[in-house]
Design brief:
- The chain is α/β, with parallel strands linked by helices.
- It has a single domain, classed as Rossmann fold (3-Layer(aba) Sandwich).
- It is 15% helix and 26% strand.
- It has five helices and seven strands.
- Strand 1, helix 3 and strand 2 form a beta-alpha-beta unit.
- It is globular, with a radius of gyration of 16 Å.
- It starts with 7 loop residues before the first helix and ends in a 21-residue tail after the last strand.
Length: 200
């Protein structure tokens, strides 16, 4: 399949600017889970940064070239069947989810983070139906939904919600970066560690 024939989400090969911005928070050489990886653009970007990446998607074909490559594990799985989470007991230094929403996975995504692990999440939100697909409310986040999912579970480093007119795939997006380090403070006031904030 040529790039011109690819579905739009597979034709895009550059990483989301949101993922690129927060990738430095991931522990050096830490393993990463790329959920609903599609063509693997984010996992490939993170492999180039020295991370071993587990790619999971219901279709193996767009990831076939990664089979057997050092630092890449490709798992073909439909995560929406109600089957047990295939990564139970496997902690990751980061979990990356972009342009994908299946709400029953929120708990599994959080529990898959090692101490200090980073959740980088970006997907479409309500209002996107006025501009482009997806339009189904089952695939669109409600206002504040990502914040609600991680509040009191992870330290929220960054959150955005609104119309993104440029970048990889424009639309109404929610974006979250959060770290699994609540309760690991060495400060007298109990506040969690401070993380650097940068722009790309």
């Amino acid at each position: 399949m040529s790039k011109a024939d690819c579905p739009k989400h597979l034709a895009v090969t550059d990483p989301s600017p949101w993922v690129a911005r927060w990738a430095p928070l991931i522990r050096p050489n830490g393993s990463v889970l790329d959920v609903a990886a599609g063509g693997g653009r984010h996992g490939r970007f993170l492999m180039a940064r020295g991370h071993a990446v587990t790619f999971v998607d219901r279709s193996f074909e767009p990831l076939a070239d990664l089979a057997g490559r050092p630092g890449a594990e490709v798992i073909e799985a439909d995560l929406e069947t109600g089957a047990p989470w295939p990564f139970k007991g496997r902690p990751f230094a980061a979990v990356v989810v972009v342009n994908y929403l299946h709400r029953p996975l929120f708990e599994d995504l959080i529990l898959s983070l090692e101490p200090g692990g980073v959740l980088i999440y970006e997907t479409f939100a309500r209002g996107n139906e006025d501009f482009a697909r997806p339009r189904n409310p089952d695939h669109l986040l409600k206002a504040g939904e990502l914040l609600h999912a991680v509040t009191d579970r992870l330290q929220i480093v960054a959150y955005e919600h609104g119309l993104v007119g440029s970048g990889d795939i424009p639309g109404v997006k929610q974006r979250l970066c959060a770290v699994n380090d609540l309760g690991t403070s060495n400060r007298e006031d109990g506040e969690p560690p401070v993380h650097g904030i940068s722009r790309v």
